[in-house]
Amino acid sequence: MITYKHFTLKVLHIAPECSPLAKKGGLGDVIGTLPKALKKQNIDARVLLPAWPGVIEKAAKIGKLNKEPLGKISVALNWRAYTASVLEADIGGLHVYLLDQPELFSDPNIYPERLDQETILPFVFLSFASFELPKLNGWKPQFLHSHDWTTAPVSAALRWHRYYSSFNEDYDTVFTIHNLAFQGIINHSVLDGWGFCPDAYSNLDSDSMEFFGQLNVMKGAITTSEAFTTVSPSYSWDIQTPNGGLGLDGVIVANRDKLRGIINGIDYDVWNPETDCFIPSNYSLKNMSGKEECRKALLKECGWKDDGRPLLIFVGRLTEQKGVDMMTQALKSLLAKKVRCVIVGSGNDMYTRKITEFEKENPDSVHATLEFNEDMAHLTYAGGDILLMPSLFEPCGLSQLIAFAYGTIPVARATGGLADTVIDADGSTDGTGFLFTDYTPSELRKAIERALEAKKDNEKWNSIVKNAMSADFSWDNSAKAYAELYRDILTSD
Ligand code: GLC
Fold first, then answer.
1. Does this model's pTM top 0.85?
2. In 3D, which of 370, 380, 411, 392 has the Cα closest to residue 326?
3. 67-76, 304-313, 346-355: segment of lowest average pLDDT
4. How many angstroms does the Cα of residue 379 sit away from the middle of ligand 1?
5. Of 100, 277, 290, 302, whose CA is between 20 and 30 Å from 16?
């Protein structure tokens, strides 16, 4: 293990998701993979995760779980003590601490429908537990690295909490924004019960968590952490604009000296068509015949006969962010004759209803799996021809990176991480996909048409597939960038 200034670098990642134990979206993938990649940079990175229903059982099944708890920790919230048992597990080389507190961590959906004084408590507890953990086993990180609004109270507490502010000198903090759309906005009356001083909420201090008369916990992490990051360089610029900043652009611009954009990677141990055990036939750039087998299997799964129409796929959360409405509008005129579309993803009722309707109207052209289904996701990436990713905004996006690996070519909106990772094939011989700029169905449609044209030209298509499959978005590069950030913070201390 490398030592900086004569000590080993230790980092605790704090988050409500960590794949494969608990996952709702891309955040889970990042937390399940980044710490392992940091280990290769000689950084002892571990994870603090709530034991949501089923997590302990899953840890015992797929990893090594120490059944004997490390001990108990207590956190005072709303004038009472909440106590959790801490369990330790090794999940394929990932060192995880699990907080067993069934009263707070009872929601299998992880995120509440509505944020209020009660529903926010699990996340505040998780955040404060990071200060209590070292008291149990003596493993004391120099860095507390929190992710998204749910763990934003970590660095805010080091500034404003009546007790935890006394730990301020013990830690450096890094805060990563995976999605600025969720900021943790709530009535400020909760602060007293969390143990925060009145300074935490003051419209005289632009660093405080006051936000248009409400409390904004994400704002607190942006102003108080030693550094904050976004999950792609372009997104770090997007959020400095009134459109992308969602009310926080002014705060972000004022703190931009400590902002970095570090692109996510994907886990090629999981997403590799050569070794993937979820797909019926493996393949690689050297031998692509397996992709055709996967295509056939996907058609069969959809109950369709092959009529030669290209298979467009969408794999992701069904939310406004992902451009679902625009996608269905753009597809309307293309279906029937030109393409078919396979959709895999979960989302809120409104979107699942819309997609179910869309499928009913086009039984021979649209197939939807409206749940997070790992088998179907792998088969769809492998069997599809073109991935649609018309996001309104995209902090990084993982689907396009996975699609590259499976030789499935993205048609994506040039925003955030999509703009950073997809190269337009009509503008460059290094092209890996097709980009469009304006968020309109007709622009998306034009980009799909360009992809369909390219697909008719075997030589061109094969070279795009080759570029995509050779692209390297492994975590090693991202981990190096995080290691450099930690080091920069230490040397500037
Ligand atoms: C969020 C973002 C997505 C990003 C992921 C992981 O889900 O919406 O763009 O890839 O977090 O950082």
1. yes
2. 392
3. 346-355
4. 22
5. 277
